[in-house]
C-alpha cells in the first residue's frame, strides 16, 4: 500500500525576489519542493532565472520567471500583477534581492548609499506594501533576508550594515502592523554563505585565506551553503512557524 506524504506548502503561492542565483535560487527550489508555486524574480540574469525554473519544473514543481527591478515602483507593481495573474493570491513573500558595496568611511558616496538603501530597504518596503494587498485573506508569511552584519558590523560596511540594521527594525515593525491580518514577518540573518557571487569575488574560493579563517573559528567548521538558508525559509513559510513573528533568525554556524 502506497503512502502519500503531503507537502508543507502545497497549494501556496510564493514570490522570491533576486532568485536567479545563490541564496534566492536555493529558497525558490526548496519552497517549490514543498509544493509551492514559485515566482522566480530576477533583475537582469534571465539565464539564471530560467535555469532555476527549469530545475523546479524538471523535478515536478511549478515556477515562472518574472523580470523586475524591485528598486523601481513600476517594476514592483508589474511583478505583483503578473504573479497574481499566474498563481492567484499570494501566501509567501521572500525579500531576498539586495546588493552590497564595501567601502571605508572616506570612500562612502551618496550614489552608493542611494543604491544600497534604494534596493535593500526601500525596495523591500515597497515590494511588501504591494504584495500584502494581494495576500490570501487567511494570512501568510513575509521573510526578509537580512545579514549578520546588522549586528556584527565589520569595518568598511557602514552603508551595507546600515541597510541590514534597517531591515531588522522594519521586520519587527511590520510584524506588529500586519499581525492582525494573519501575516507573519520574520528575518533570516545569514552568516558567510558560499554562493556564485562570493566565489567570483574570491571571498569563498577554496584557496581564500578569509574562508579558511572562518572555517577555523566556526564551531561547525565550515561556512554556509545556500540550502542552509533555504531550509530556514521553508520553516518560516510553513505552518511549522505559525506562532513565530517579528523574529531574527541568525543562521551563521555559531559565528554570531
From TrEMBL:
Boundaries of every Ketoreductase domain copy: 12-191
InterPro entries tied to this protein: KR_dom (IPR057326), NAD(P)-bd_dom_sf (IPR036291), Sc_DH/Rdtase_CS (IPR020904), SDR_fam (IPR002347)
EC number, UniProt record: 1.1.1.47
Alphabetical UniProt keywords: Oxidoreductase
Signal sequence annotation: none
Source organism superkingdom: Bacteria
Gene Ontology MF term list: glucose 1-dehydrogenase [NAD(P)+] activity
Enzyme's top EC category: oxidoreductase
PROSITE patterns attached to this UniProt entry: ADH_SHORT (PS00061)
NCBIfam families membership: PRK07231.1
Family the UniProt entry places it in: Belongs to the short-chain dehydrogenases/reductases (SDR) family.
Entries under PANTHER family matching the protein: OXIDOREDUCTASE, SHORT-CHAIN DEHYDROGENASE/REDUCTASE FAMILY (AFU_ORTHOLOGUE AFUA_5G02870) (PTHR43639), SHORT-CHAIN DEHYDROGENASE_REDUCTASE FAMILY PROTEIN (PTHR43639:SF1)
Protein name according to UniProt: Glucose 1-dehydrogenase
Organism, as annotated: Luteolibacter ambystomatis
Amino acid at each position: 500500500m502506497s503512502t502519500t506524504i503531503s507537502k508543507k506548502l502545497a497549494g501556496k503561492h510564493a514570490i522570491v525576489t533576486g532568485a536567479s542565483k545563490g541564496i534566492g535560487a536555493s529558497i525558490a527550489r526548496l519552497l517549490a519542493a514543498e509544493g509551492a508555486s514559485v515566482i522566480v524574480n530576477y533583475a537582469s540574469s534571465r539565464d539564471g532565472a530560467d535555469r532555476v525554473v527549469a530545475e523546479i519544473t524538471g523535478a515536478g514543481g511549478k515556477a515562472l520567471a518574472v523580470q523586475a527591478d524591485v528598486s523601481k515602483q513600476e517594476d514592483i507593481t508589474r511583478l505583483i500583477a503578473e504573479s497574481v495573474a499566474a498563481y492567484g493570491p499570494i501566501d509567501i513573500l521572500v525579500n531576498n534581492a539586495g546588493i552590497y558595496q564595501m567601502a571605508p568611511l572616506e570612500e562612502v558616496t551618496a550614489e552608493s548609499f542611494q543604491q544600497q538603501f534604494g534596493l535593500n530597504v526601500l525596495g523591500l518596503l515597497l515590494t511588501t506594501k504591494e504584495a500584502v494587498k494581494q495576500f490570501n485573506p487567511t494570512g501568510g508569511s513575509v521573510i526578509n533576508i537580512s545579514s549578520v552584519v546588522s549586528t556584527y558590523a565589520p569595518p568598511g560596511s557602514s552603508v551595507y550594515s546600515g541597510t541590514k540594521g534597517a531591515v531588522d527594525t522594519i521586520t519587527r515593525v511590520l510584524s506588529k502592523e500586519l499581525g492582525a491580518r494573519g501575516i507573519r514577518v520574520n528575518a533570516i540573518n545569514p552568516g558567510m554563505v558560499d554562493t556564485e557571487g562570493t566565489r567570483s569575488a574570491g571571498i569563498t574560493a577554496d584557496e581564500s585565506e578569509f574562508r579558511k579563517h572562518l572555517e577555523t573559528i566556526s564551531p561547525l567548521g565550515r561556512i554556509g551553503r545556500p540550502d542552509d538558508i533555504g531550509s530556514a525559509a521553508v520553516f518560516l513559510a510553513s505552518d511549522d512557524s505559525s506562532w513565530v513573528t517579528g523574529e531574527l533568525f541568525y543562521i551563521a554556524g555559531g559565528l554570531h
